[in-house]
Design a protein that fits this description.
The complex is a heterodimer of chains A (125) and B (368).
Chain A: E1 7-8, E2 13-18, E3 21-26, H1 28-34, E4 37-41, E5 48-49, E6 54-60, E7 64-68, E8 73-78, H2 81-84, H3 88-91, E9 100-104, H4 116-122
Antiparallel strand pairs in A: 1-2, 2-3, 3-9, 4-6, 5-8, 6-7, 8-9
Chain B: H1 13-18, E1 22-26, E2 29-34, H2 38-47, E3 50-53, E4 58-63, H3 67-74, E5 87-93, E6 99-109, E7 112-117, H4 122-133, E8 139-142, E9 148-153, H5 157-164, E10 177-182, E11 185-190, E12 199-204, H6 209-219, E13 226-227, H7 230-239, H8 274-283, E14 287-294, E15 306-308, E16 311-313, E17 316-322, E18 327-335, E19 344-349, E20 352-359
Parallel strand pairs in B: 3-13
Antiparallel strand pairs in B: 1-2, 3-9, 4-7, 4-8, 5-6, 6-7, 9-12, 10-11, 11-12, 14-18, 14-20, 15-16, 15-19, 17-18, 19-20
Classes of the chains: A alpha+beta (125), B alpha+beta (368).
Chain lengths: 125, 368
């Protein structure tokens, strides 16, 4: 089960939109695929990104994976807790282990992403 | 679950799938990369015990009046020093002294040897060995189909095997083996491994593998044994600085460059690759495989470029977060002058050059 109010990318990121702010993370499916996460490279606050641009990098013991921004915007906040405790991403990827918050360029943009049902179909749930 | 066509399955395939392992293609086999997670499995082997299916490894038997002379010609270690019941780490080399493969040579009896080679190299090794065997009075044979292999590694391994083995395994020395029954099944029981821990590698008939696998998991349950996948096998061997063919050693790196001079016995007489190795030994190698650490959280992985004083070196051969040591480590070939412990160099990680330091190896050595 993935949260119903999030929107998803085919690359397994999620975005939760509240007003003009979008919170971005990776999905539980993504963390399972990566395995034990040992490092999260977070974006810099103030950086502007467009949808599909690299926001950061996640490293597990076995793999390296880019985090692609699901939508365009400016990074307003990063989850600094992940710098010290990257393993939180294995435990609560849809909650406390969010990656960053964006001030959205276009709050309607997320509407073009996958909804929960479409994402669950994608990952075969 | 979907299985890619053409992938081979070990006799323990069903056990892995039932245990919920994540299965991946590896060297043409469908193998478990992890069961619960690389970190947990790695730490279990360092502190308790872990069980590995390594049935994908290849086995070659060499028998006949000229078996010793043949293996002296084909491998770099001195097989004449190998007593029955003992095992030697060695290498098959190209005429340039580079690796065709690294391997274990078991001396079963007079004129009777059992070679264990890497899965990815088995067809190549078999061709090489069989082709050269034609010039000797030996019978060399690919016996890979006749053997499953299960490794039990960790500080609790001996106590667990002791309960299941007909013969007491305690007196078996490191790199020694016995032929005995394990769970009532005839096995080769070797005190060897690829983790840096005490433990055993158990060779048995494929049809007996499940019985031994489940018996060990049952017997070891109280001691906290867990099945371990290829993911932790790789991080364990890296902490112990045991070479991996295809990463650290290959047909472009010589045995001396790989810092494995202790298995090169030039004094035994000429063998395939000995001319180049003798010259390298006399002149000194130009590069050497060394261990390094990086301080940043980003991992310097296989293939990442390395730089010594701005000059390209490397690339990184193996690199990982080390789950027991809790730091980032790796192996790289560095030129003379840059390979001593304490030397600083750089590794390029996603476009950024990060500082790295040569460190003594092995990274991890168990307390004895």
């Amino acid at each position: 089960m993935v949260p119903k109010n999030f929107r998803y990318t085919k690359e397994h990121e999620w975005v939760a939109v509240e007003g003009g702010t979008g919170t971005v993370g990776i999905t539980d499916f993504a963390q399972q695929q990566l395995g034990d996460i040992v490092y999260v490279e977070l974006p810099e606050v103030g950086r502007s990104v467009i949808a599909g641009e690299t926001l950061g990098t996640i490293e597990s013991v076995k793999a390296v994976s880019e985090i692609y921004s699901p939508v365009g915007g400016t990074v307003s906040e990063v989850n600094g807790a992940l710098a010290d405790s990257p393993e939180k991403l294995n435990h609560d990827p849809h909650g406390s282990a969010w990656i960053c918050r964006l001030t959205l360029s276009d709050p309607a943009e997320a509407g073009g992403l996958l909804d929960a049902a479409a994402y669950e179909a994608l990952i075969g749930k | 679950m979907t299985i890619e066509p053409g992938l081979r399955q070990t006799p323990l395939h069903r056990a892995h799938v039932e245990a919920g392992a994540r299965m991946v293609p590896f060297a043409g086999w469908h193998m478990p990369v992890q069961y619960t997670g690389v970190m947990d499995e790695h730490v279990a082997v360092r502190t308790r015990a872990g069980l590995f299916d390594v049935s994908h490894m290849g086995e070659i038997t060499v028998r006949g009046p000229q078996a010793l002379a043949f293996l002296q010609h084909l491998t770099c270690n001195d097989v004449s020093k190998l007593a029955a019941g003992r095992i030697q780490y060695s290498a098959l080399m190209t005429p340039n002294g580079a690796f065709i493969d690294d391997l274990l040579v078991h001396r079963m009896a007079e004129n009777d040897y059992f070679l264990v080679v890497n899965a990815a190299n088995t067809p190549k090794d078999v061709s090489w060995v069989l082709e050269h065997a034609r010039s000797y009075d030996v019978e060399a044979r690919d016996a890979s189909e006749e053997w499953a292999q299960i490794a039990i590694q960790g500080p609790q391994a001996l106590a667990i095997v002791k309960e299941l083995s007909a013969e007491d395994p305690s007196p078996i020395r490191y790199y020694g083996f016995v032929r005995t029954d394990v769970c009532g099944v005839p096995c080769i029981l070797s005190r060897t491994g690829y983790t840096g821990e005490d433990g055993f590698e158990i060779y048995c008939a494929p049809e007996a593998a499940e019985r031994i696998w489940y018996a060990i998991l049952g017997e070891g349950a109280r001691a906290g044994i867990v099945p371990v996948g290829l993911g932790a096998r790789d991080t364990l061997r890296l902490e112990a600085k045991m070479a991996l063919y295809g990463n650290d050693i290959d047909d472009t790196t010589t045995v001396l460059e790989a810092d494995l001079g202790w298995i090169v016995k030039l004094e035994k007489g000429p063998f395939v690759g000995s001319d180049v190795l003798a010259r390298q030994k006399a002149e000194g190698v130009r590069r050497k495989l060394v261990g390094f650490e990086t301080e940043g959280r980003a991992v310097a992985r296989h293939g990442y470029p390395a730089f010594v004083g701005g000059e390209a070196a490397g690339p990184v051969r193996s690199g990982s977060f080390a789950p027991f040591l809790k730091k980032n480590i790796g192996l790289v070939y560095l030129p003379r002058g840059a390979w001593d412990p304490g030397t600083r160099f750089e590794v390029e990680i996603r476009g950024r050059r990060e500082p790295a330091t040569v460190v003594p190896t092995p990274f991890y050595k168990r307390a004895r």
